[in-house]
Write a structure and sequence with these properties.
This protein has six helices and 18 strands. Bound molecules: pyridoxal-5'-phosphate. Pyridoxal-5'-phosphate binds next to helix 5.
């Protein structure tokens, strides 16, 4: 298997086989050495806690080629700490940030020829995960864990340009409970949100916008992405205990401030959608997905007509992407160079 046949510009955001993944096992109080393997399957006990009681969490980050061929990982430490936080919240053994970094370095280097070339728009998506592998029948944390990292080359999210998409407000289903696990990256949140997302897609929307589960009054986030809006020189993004703290959003808050916007995190009433000039979703996969309109009950809040994203969304998107690919200076220390040999 090699990369000779990959059409970098037409790669989907999908799994593509590479050479190796890396695995560490936690057993008897310690993490093992990392093992690089080309096996795509996991031997798993049928009573493993990840299968029954949802002991699973993951991360997602991208590695880009710079113009001079270096491998650049974006805000890797943030992912390391968030993975540890997710693990702790559902009582799994957290891989220490040093181990996380070692795993990413080794697995990226072992798959260096799958790193898409500079200028293709494609990147190497890195997917770390932790699962409870120890058997339990009673509800208790597992005694053994697997920390695995695989990579897959992914195409640019917007193949035909940076296009706005519609959202619909979901009022009949919640993604996360008010004091539940919505603030960590666990698979169960995705299972909980899938039906709402799929219904929205059937209705012609790109995804849903969830409201806070307690009051049904404030905006939480979209299925797999945070929400933000632009109004009168402000970058506004929801504050909530049940949304996942997006690293992309955190970066956009910083860039928006530099760009002269006033960046505010606060509860955002759903009624406010009618007052925004621009809106977007943000996350690693697409950086920003501009929103064309939001349907809520029988009303529609419109941000773009046609295929043109708003000027602030476009500027923020270009600035963040330029830092990720090494085209713009990394003044915040967000980029890690991964040695490839
Ligand atoms: C991963 C994720 C995001 C995006 O986070 P990034 O760090 O920007 O990739 C947003 N919402 C949810 C629910 C997520 O799981």
């Amino acid at each position: 298997m090699d990369n000779a046949d990959i059409d970098w510009k037409n790669l989907a955001f999908a799994y593509h086989r590479t050479h190796f993944n890396i695995r560490y096992t936690w057993r008897d109080g310690a993490w093992s050495e990392g093992i690089l393997t080309n096996d795509e399957t996991i031997p798993l006990h049928m009573a493993a806690t990840c299968l029954h009681y949802g002991q699973e969490c993951f991360e997602g980050l991208k590695v880009f080629s710079s113009q001079d061929g270096e491998a650049l990982a974006f805000r890797m430490n943030e992912n390391a700490h968030r993975l540890a936080r997710s693990c702790k919240k559902i009582l799994m053994e957290p891989p220490p940030p040093g181990l996380f970094k070692e795993a990413i370095f080794k697995v990226v280097r072992a798959n260096a020829d799958f790193l898409p070339p500079y200028g293709s728009g494609a990147s190497l998506y890195v997917r770390p995960l932790v699962i409870g592998t120890g058997p339990r029948v009673g509800v208790k944390p597992a005694g053994e864990y697997l920390f695995l990292v695989f990579v897959t080359p992914v195409g640019p999210y917007f193949k035909t340009g940076f296009k706005p998409v519609p959202l619909v407000v979901e009022e009949n289903m919640d993604r996360a409970a008010p004091l539940g696990v919505g603030d960590v990256k666990v698979g169960g949140n995705y299972a909980a949100g899938m039906k709402a997302s799929m219904n929205a897609r059937k209705g012609g929307y790109a995804d849903v916008l969830f409201l806070d589960a307690k009051h049904k009054r404030y905006i939480d986030e979209s299925g797999p992405a945070n929400f933000f809006a632009i109004r009168d020189g402000q970058y506004i993004t929801p504050e909530s205990h049940s949304i996942l703290p997006s690293i992309t959003n955190k970066s956009l808050v910083t860039l928006a401030s530099e760009f002269g916007l006033d960046a505010v995190r606060r509860q955002v009433e759903i009624e406010e959608i009618f007052t925004f000039q621009e809106a977007g979703c943000c996350g690693t996969a697409a950086v920003i997905t501009p929103v064309s309109y939001i349907d809520w009950r029988d009303r529609r809040a419109i941000y773009c007509r046609g295929e043109q994203a708003g000027p602030v969304c476009t500027e923020l998107y270009n600035r963040l992407l330029a830092i990720q690919t090494g085209d713009a200076p990394d003044t915040h220390g967000w980029v890690t160079r991964i040695p490839l040999d």
